[in-house]
Amino acid sequence: MSAPLVDTHAHLDDPAFDADRAEVLARAKAAGVRAIVNVGYNPERIRTTLALTEAEPIVYAAVGLHPTEAERLSPDVLAAIREAARHPKVVAIGEIGLDYHHQTASREAQVRAFRAQLDLARELGLPVIIHNRDAHDDVYALLREADAGAIGGVMHAFSGSEAHVEAAVALGFYLSLGGPVTFKNARALQALVPRIPLDRLVIETDAPYLAPHPYRGRRNESAHVRLVAEAVARLAGRSVEEIAHLSTDNAKRLFRLPSPDAPPDHGMG
Ligand SMILES: [Zn+2]
């Protein structure tokens, strides 16, 4: 089965892949992955992410400052993100948002960085990739305050309740599912899958993190996005082919990725 897939969130520039990055990318392509959005979440990782996009046609980039590093926000860092976002393979600002689980940055600093980068995304006309960990109320309140529906974006590694599905959809956002939807103890998340409109669903790995069952706890990689598609298909009562095609179409619309008939060096062939 080789229906096309898009991994909408990965960190393949991570040192965890230094020994075998070429093999990881080859396995992704063999599994049908046509595009990967690699997320550069601080100034150093933005550099390694852009270098990867230049070496690998199927890799695109998101650039931003992760909420756990929000204390690093400065005019210089914001200027570096703005400059990086001019790169032709940058398709989003992210990952940005709020993380109340890892307490490495104050809530005030996180809110400041989130607002500043929502403004930047609006200025640049790029969608946002939202990181939300234990911060549902504040994330949705800030998105509404920023009129984020006009910016567009995706809830990365979606978690929450049916009300949060509705809140994201009301904003016109996409919802991205990854490894956790395959976990045996993820019944609440699995029960929400049929509630996600099929034109709002995208899939991801978050590699090297969040490996799906049966690889849970091990290094994740983009080829495993197929396991996410299979789990979503079962839960949504659709075929894997259907989920692959529609999630790929959604990802292309969300990130304005080139269509399959674009020149081969743009990767979506
Ligand atoms: Zn991530």
From TrEMBL:
Domain of life: Bacteria
Keywords: Hydrolase, Metal-binding
Any one cellular-component term (Gene Ontology): cytosol
Binding site for a divalent metal cation 1: 9, 11, 95, 206
An example Gene Ontology molecular-function term: metal ion binding
Keyword Hydrolase: yes
Keyword Metal-binding: yes
Annotated a divalent metal cation 2 binding sites: 131, 156
Database matches in NCBIfam families: YchF/TatD family DNA exonuclease
Protein name as it appears in the record: Hydrolase TatD
Source organism of this protein record: Hydrogenibacillus schlegelii
